[in-house]
Amino acid sequence: MSTLSLLFIFLNVLFSRVAGLWPIPRSLSTGNTPVKLSPTFSIQFASDFAQGTAGIPQDLLEAIERTEMYLHNDTFERLVVGRGKTDAKVLPTAIQVHSLRLTLTEKARLRSIAEEATSTIDEKMQEGIESYALKVPEFGGGRDGGVAMLQANTSLGLLRGLQTFGQMWYAYEGTKYLLNAPIEIEDGPAFPYRGFSFDTSRNFYPIADILRTLDAMSWVKLNILYWHIIDSQSFPLEVEAFPELSAKGAYSSEEVYSLKDVDTIVKYANARGIDVIMVELDSPGHTTAVSFAHPEHVACANKSPWSRYASEPPAGQLRIASNQTVAFVKDMFGSVAKRLPGRMMSSGGDEVNLACWEEDEETSEELRAKNQTIAEALNVFVEEVQGELKENGKTPFIKSDMILTHNVPVTNDTVAVVWQSSEDAVRMAQRGIRFIHQPSNFFYLDCRGGEWLGNDVLGNSWCDPFKTWQRAYSFDPHANLTTEETRLVLGGQMPLWSEQSSGENLDSIVWPRLGAGAEVFWTGEVLPDEVNATSGGNAFLRLNELRYRLVDRNVRAIALQPKWCVLRPGECDLN
């Protein structure tokens, strides 16, 4: 038998053993017994779960209904030559699973999924808040014959287990089955923060696109939507205290996220175990759109040449030395913060341009009157804005260049977003500041379409090359950090900046690459078989399965390989 054939057999055995789960659980054991779901399968609570269904959170009941719907509607067949026909012979005699029984641990606290999802970052760090244990036995009859078991400490943990259970099954001619019982899983996240940063300002995304993205995020156990909702180009957010900002700053009246829209999106996310950090409200840079309604608060608005005053067009930054502007910004943040149940919020802070303030007459006059430098005014501005967030019960987030480039002092409860380079993580850790990873050299999903600025004959992008899923998957959150410094790493997120994306191409840009970040921050450095995660292992096989499952659920994820290769694992590998 050839070496290639042996490799093909090995990969198929390995693939079936891990059941194509994404992210792969942190502890997983499997067997080789086929089982199938009963036609009357249901998800039930153990008799002692709560005193009647009145004590069970409504969003947990809805999560169960969604899981049952997916199990009924999914048509995904196993990715092998012949697809489901390959397994047809074993299905008639496979033992049936008639229910999944949900139980709580002795230490359980029964709150709604939304309450758990919107907890503080410190609460998210508590061990067990998202953990679960899942068992699918090879059934031999008895009192619990045909019953799978899911146990967790919280409603959120039960949700994570339900998401895993929904990935286990293949379809063939109406039958849902798996081949590798008994399955035992002990699982929980390596990091409390696992996010997607989504820019809906540069181009507007319909609500349906955002909700579909939230669904897909929940399937891979991402728990943060870092919503970059305004930028220089448009102000599509309705702010209760300042409705004129979106009335004059949005691209059109149809391209606005109303108060009702925001409530809908946040509620939808929270019920799926996802917290929403409403950001950016970027400040003090990237704020030209504020000038459409309030030109008095913005320096160098639309000034030419834009490249002298901003990182991209149009130019414009908040007048940080103006007391009136600081008060306006605090009121704006406060108005938005009061509507959000989440306990984290960001003031932005990236890519400020000193020339904008240096050449702004109003800013210069304010600085002279206060005997301040730009650096001193910036420190005061950040302190005031971050103080407003804390007064509204939010943990403040800030972009790393405010700290590393401009040396703005921040309090110990601040979380930095390290974005310019993965190497900056070490510099941030040396300052003792908690942070999340968002390195442009590993995670930027938009580095793909060439230059979007006109009159550039080469068409190269600043963040070339394309960030492949393999590149993102190779990221080590603890690289070059001491053991003590690793405690400062809260997790990370992959961003989509939307200069060249919109609802029409959203899915294919984001999926399945975003899954790479989801597994990096859920599973951590070591897979259940003790293969180092950054080496790739069987990730290609499992990510292909995730992609096909996403498509089956109407997410237009891009193909990773020709289907011929997908059905023949290993035969398209480099020799």
General description of the model:
This protein has helices at about 5-20, 60-75, 115, 120-125, 155-165, 205-220, 245-250, 260-270, 305-310, 325-335, 355-360, 360-370, 375-390, 400-405, 425-430, 440-445, 470-475, 485, 505-510, 515-525, 540-550, 565, and strands spanning about 25-30, 35-45, 95-105, 130-135, 145-150, 170, 175-180, 185, 195-200, 225-230, 275-280, 300, 315-320, 345, 395-400, 415-420, 435, 490-495. The strands form three sheets. Strands 1-8-4-5-3-2-7-6 form an eight-stranded mixed beta sheet. Strands 11-10-9-18-17-16-15-14 form an eight-stranded parallel beta sheet. Residues about 1-20 and about 530-535 have low confidence and may be disordered. Strand 16 (about 415-420), helix 15 and strand 17 form a beta-alpha-beta unit. Helix 2 (about 60-75) packs parallel to helix 5 (about 155-165), helix 6 (about 205-220) runs parallel beside helix 8 and helix 10 runs parallel beside helix 13. It is α/β, with parallel strands linked by helices and about 575 residues long. It folds into two domains: about 25-185, Chitobiase/beta-hexosaminidase domain 2-like (Chitobiase, domain 2); about 195-285 and about 315-350 and about 375-540, Glycosidases (TIM Barrel, Alpha-Beta Barrel), CATH 3.20.20. This is Beta-hexosaminidase. Keywords: Glycoprotein, Glycosidase, Hydrolase, Signal. It catalyses: Hydrolysis of terminal non-reducing N-acetyl-D-hexosamine residues in N-acetyl-beta-D-hexosaminides. Pfam families: Glyco_hydro_20, Glycohydro_20b2.
